[in-house]
Amino acid sequence: MSTTQAASNSNFDIFSQLEAHNHEQVVFCQDKDTGLKAIIAIHNTVLGPGLGGTRVWHYNNDYEAFNDVMRLSRGMTYKAAISGLNLGGAKAVIIGDAKTIKTEALMRKFGRFVENLNGKYITAEDVNTTTRDMEYVHMETSHVVGLPESMGGGGDPSPVTAYGVYMGMKAAAKHAFGNESLQGKKVAVQGLGKVGGHLVEHLHKEGAQLFVTDLNQDAMKKYNKEFGATVVSGDEIFGLDVDIFAPCALGAVLNTENINKLKAKVIAGAANNQLADEEVHGKMLIEKGIAYAPDFLINAGGLINVYQEYIGYNKETAMRNTEHIYDVTLEIFKQASAKNIHTQKAAIEMAEKRINDILKVRSTY
Ligand code: NAD
Asked: How far is 248 from 302, CA to CA, in rounded Å?
């Protein structure tokens, strides 16, 4: 089949996809020698350069990869905007199996594509990329953050993400229970990885009663032994008689079946895209009287940390700015109640308002 035939047979209209959420630019990167196939999507750069990690994933087809990078880059725009950062939203995906395709040459070639964008896109670690990979990227471009402390970077952003989630959880508790204290509160944490683990430490310090689950038995043993957490298995975590549920493992866990099981009055966790369907499940949480702290708002600590790296790293400033998540979360609950909308929608509206306001500020020379 000729290229023209293939194009005419296809319903895949790239420019309609870009227009749908007003993406500025999408770059397709190909290199036969290294096997690199990557897509960089820059969603919006009104507030600043688009920053977002590079994910390596074995997509079933190119369309799936395109869809993912489009969705993720838009999410980064909102996360940066609501966090008060002068950053836009972007993301990159490298197509392939991370176990076999990642080489120094491939990561450096990718770095050259990033360099060609002259700072309009800044990359970082994401799913299946490591600090080491970013060191390779850094050999070809300075437009990369999330570097080790030994290279002047901010190191692993996960503890800062966990601190932000903790702040968001306290604000949600204040809204739901009239008091921000988590002492004695029963909290169920799903996922004891880099973020969930640090979150458990904050909660333990404040005297929360902990219930945890993970696929990793060793992690569960550790948090049981060191922090007195009660270990539960798998889906049992959803139906526990607790005050707060913290999803820190997977996206889309807030679906109809799981929400119906929940007894918690607050949801505040680190996982991205927790609502399986934003409209349906956002509304369902209101009906069930559950206070939901929007994921992209309360898990922004890591982004706040890498932004500090971009402007000149200072840990104290990163932590102070992350603390601000508490105030913004409270404000979101207020706005959502006043407008009678779910909190995820209120958060998106707040992010869009900031972008539109700043766009007007920049309308004159
Ligand atoms: P991680 O990979 O270190 O930890 C995830 C943990 O969840 C692992 O221990 C894994 O075993 C566990 N897990 C996976 N599936 C599970 C299941 N079905 N039930 C129970 N446990 C399960 O990841 P992380 O860096 O801690 O991130 C956690 C979540 O937060 C992810 O969704 C991530 O996208 C999001 N997030 C992370 C950061 C960050 O700074 N690391 C920033 C923003 C958002």
From this structure: 14
